[in-house]
Amino acid sequence: MQLRAAWGIARRDLSARFSGLRLLLVCLFLGVGALAAIGSLTGAIRSQLQAEGRMILGGDLEVEVWQRLLTDDEKAFIGQYGTLSEGLRLQGMASTANAAAPVELKAVDVKWPLVGSLVLESGEQVGAPPPGTAWLAPGAAERLDVSVGDSFTLGTRKVRVGGIIAEEPDRLSEGFQLGQTVIVPLDLPEAAGLVAPGSMYQSKTRVAFNSPYDGEGVEGAIAQKFPGRGYDFRTAERASPGAERFVSRLGEFLTLVGLAALVIAGIGIGLGVNSYLEARRRAIATLKILGATSRDIVTIYGLQIGAAALVGSAAGLLAGFAVTPLLASALGDLLPVETGLVFDPLALARALAFGLLVALVFAAPPLLRARDFPAMALMRSRVSPLARAWKTYALPVGLGLAGIVALTLIGSPTPLQSALFLAGAAVLLALLWLLGLAIRHAAAKAPRPSDPILRSGLANLHRPGAATGSLVTALGFGLSAFVLLAAVQTSLAGNIARSVPERAPDYFVLDVPKVGLAEFRETIETFAPGSEVTAVPTLRGAVIAYGPEDDQTRVEDLKELPEGAWALRGERGLTYSPTLPESNSVTAGTFWPADHKGEPEVSVDEELAQAIGLQIGDTITVSLLGVERTARITSFRRIDWESLGFNNVFVFSPNALEDAPHNFAATIDLPEGRSGSGLLRLLIDAFPSSSVIEVGPILTEARAILDQVALAILAAAAVAVLAGLAVLLGAIAAARAARTYDTVVLRVLGASRRQLLGLLLAEFGLLAAVLAGVALALGTGLAWLVITQVFDFDWLPDWPRIIMVLGAGLVLVLGFAIGASLPLLRARPAQSLRAL
Amino acid sequence: MTSPTPLSQAASPVVDARDLRLTLGDGRAATEILRGIDLRVMPGETLALLGPSGSGKSSLMAVLTGLERASGGALHVAGADFSVLDEDALALARRGRIGIVLQAFHLLPTMTAQENVATPMELAGEKDAWERAGAELKAVGLGHRLTHYPTQLSGGEQQRVAIARALAPRPPLLFADEPTGNLDQSTGEAIIDLLFTRREETGATLVMITHDEELAHRCDRIVRLADGIIVSDERAGAA
């Protein structure tokens, strides 16, 4: 039969309202809609980050270097490519007579910003602040309790508040900050005594090209002209790699959760298509009598299902497109850029492809079974169920699955993790499916309750055609995901609230002068006797070369850094120590004695050593404030990064570095219960050039981010629960004829409506109890794995909240189940018996 | 599409069944429905299959129309060897060769009268299916009901549509299974008149299943079945 003729017959048989295929429509609508929204949003953010790269970076190229400004010869060379704007970034302490706050100082020259402009809350568009003036982020002004025109102290200088920042053009490229932004003129840090040799600051020089140069080409030219200067470069094309990476990862994870929801929807698709085709047995048999072959049947009904799938998916795409701004507003501050309605054809095409592939996987088996419906069904009342010839649908199902896997992995920033997630989801689904079968089997074998209502409820779980397996899988997956998220989120929050503060210090202090270290310890001890102060020397330097003494590898000669060799990129923190740092252990070689005097030595992180093939006895050359220093590797160390103290990849023997100008960084652990109130003021007065980072506010911010990420994931997981509910409604609708028959017979036998309601409660109550057990066991089991094995955190779930989340899910399930079954109670026996 | 083999000379039977057997179920549950049927039907003949419930009439029709494969014996229908064809090949063989009218009409509820009649011809890839369907419906007196759905038609009208659907492809062989079973007496008589008139006009061979002696006597030949075997085969006038 020609496709056109088949479509003609298919179209006639297909009600315009898709009656019978609504479950398929709803499931695809939900799944494709979720994926479209997630894909559109993340795609939009990524493209916006790229399109606005120049604005975000504040130029075409940024050259970063630690502890110095660019030299005149560097500036002259780079200046040939365009206009330069210099700036400094450093931690600082701002104070007034009544308040003190750690701030992130951003010192800029008069040319800043090269691209865009800074907008103040007054609406004024400005550039760099005039001498003696600062632009303050609203948080900084609030903390210092100052407004425009007031003054505050930075180091040794009084500064006037010139305005409060409303929009900072290059904020995104600054990355995660440890304090509120204060923008000051370029010369202020030095004038205020905050910048001295050895101080921890970073200079950022931006270039706005005067010709359309290739950013990476210019980067290469600068690195070649001035080798070993420890530059970090950033181009407009990759202005905010951190934000891009975060959005990519979050987007991918949400896509995977959405895909899991779509798979649940797939179960609904399978059920919907199955009951649709079952209802069309007579029509199929009639067509066969009229000469339709089994191939014609597959073509006709395949076209119908395909058309419904396209309509459902298209509606999903439209809804996904429309809800993107809602999703964006739910994620709020988590997103680096603002997005409105976004049309991203690639994301929509991907969502559509996922939807159609899932529809293929789940609709193919019932469709291929339908071709074998015998024409004889018209002549005998019922023909026995057909044996499922799985071989016939192995090919389309296999192709569909392969397509889903390929589509997931292609374009995934982390294909291995995606593959693991897919495998995990497949195992989980298989487990749930088996569990569903086991429950059905157990219900059949269980002793029959003497109460007829309970007996009937139990029987409904295992009667022929019961959808118990599908329901346990579909609803179990969604509810398990809810429990998993609640357990992970509350455990992480519990760790942030309890365990992390236990391990992390209360304060980090940077730039404690070497000569003032003893006084610093004394100040803290006087303020809070019993405080624990750990101080380490801090220097910044870049690795220039490594390897055997007579055959060193120059870092600049490496075309690409080996995997795991991030410590070779740009300047890194260096330190020296007479003894093995706390929470480190030597894995090879020997750590120098405390009084070591001979050749300068260095101890290296074993992971880096492995990544670049270092051997004990090799050498490392670093550039420190323009001076090259070489030390011999005498040990490798394992670092416990979770100790949340100071950890360095390179630890040198004191005689290797101690003559270089440097300061100390310190951690302060106050005695338990001792408030830090007043400490900031004390430190600002005693050590004006030092800066303090408070751990408490950072943890609060981390919790806020965690809550928002959890909300986003919860929204995606909610689609899984909605899809599960659609499956539930579909299963109830599919079994309506059999249930109506039961209900009517029971009514004829004298059952009251109350008793029939009891039957429904018994059946769905049993199902809900089983689901609660499954979700609690699977969800918390997986959450425990994630928290203790993946994050290596303590298992601190908030049980009341988990039970509340699960309870809400179950109430939803029961409500939907009973609500959808209520029409059965209204069935009139006489009328129904005539219709049956 | 497979075009129907033209009926051969008058001497060749349009249905030729020898020792036809049908067993349903396996092993101990096996039931012998047809137990060696020998039947030849000549072109243009009208034949009534008569017998009590459970005698195997409908099963014999299912086998003769290729809806069910015989468990044994040989069967040639309108030039095709049905005993060697699988289910799909039987469906193709039915196209244009066999028209079927069933007791419960079995119209496709989602299609209009004209769409129902056009469907078998469309399945066979006929280009003028639509026009022929309209013409056939006019011929059965339903020219004014072309766009009506089955639920908008009376029982008699539905059976007229079913007759039009069976005859529109001009099959050489027409089967009718209790065509008046779901109709009241006067409607039933009108339908039978129409069936015989249209059969005569189209020249099709008619095999009709019935338990109505009077109706059976309108056929040229009456074959009686009991317990899966033919117990008598006689000209209608001889009864």
How would you explain this protein's 3D organization?
Chain A: InterPro entries: ABC3_permease_C (IPR003838), Membrane_comp_ABC_pdt (IPR038766). Chain A: The chain crosses the membrane at residues 21-45, 253-277, 298-327, 347-368, 389-410, 416-439, 465-488, 709-735, 756-787, 799-825. Chain A: It is a multi-pass membrane protein. The complex is a heterodimer of chains A (836) and B (239). Chain A is elongated and about 100 Å long. In chain A, helix 13 crosses helix 14 and helix 15 runs antiparallel to helix 23 (799-825). Helices cover 53% and strands 17% of the residues of chain A. Mean pLDDT of chain A is 83; it is low at 381-385. In chain A, strand 4 and strand 5 (125-126) form a beta hairpin. In chain A, 46% of the residues are buried. The longest helix of chain A has 40 residues, at 695-734. Chain A is α+β, with helices and mostly antiparallel strands and 836 residues long. With 239 residues, chain B is an alpha/beta fold. Helix content of chain B is 31%, strand content 26%. Chain B has seven helices and ten strands. Chain B has helices at residues 57-64, 87-94, 113-123, 129-139, 155-167, 185-202, 213-216; strands at residues 15-24, 31-41, 46-50, 72-77, 80-81, 98-101, 173-177, 205-210, 221-226, 229-235. A six-stranded mixed beta sheet of chain B has the order 6-7-8-3-9-10. In chain B, helix 5 (155-167) packs parallel to helix 6 (185-202). The longest helix of chain B is centred in the C-terminal third of the chain and has 18 residues, at 185-202.
What is the overall shape of chain A?
Answer: elongated
Helical coverage of chain A, percent range: 40-55%
The secondary-structure element order of chain B is EEEHEEHEHHHEHEHEE
- How many helical stretches of chain B? 7
Structural Rg of chain A? 34 Å
Radius of gyration of chain B, taken over Cα atoms and rounded to an integer in Å: 17 Å
Average pLDDT for all residues of chain A? 83
Straight-line distance between termini of chain B: 43 Å
| Overall outline of chain B | globular
Mean pLDDT of chain B: 86
Number of E-type strands of chain A: 22
Computed structural class of chain A: alpha+beta
**How many individual β-strands of chain B?**
10
Structural class of chain B: alpha/beta
Runs of chain A with pLDDT <50, length 5+? Answer: 381-385
The fraction of residues assigned to DSSP E strands of chain A is: 15-25%
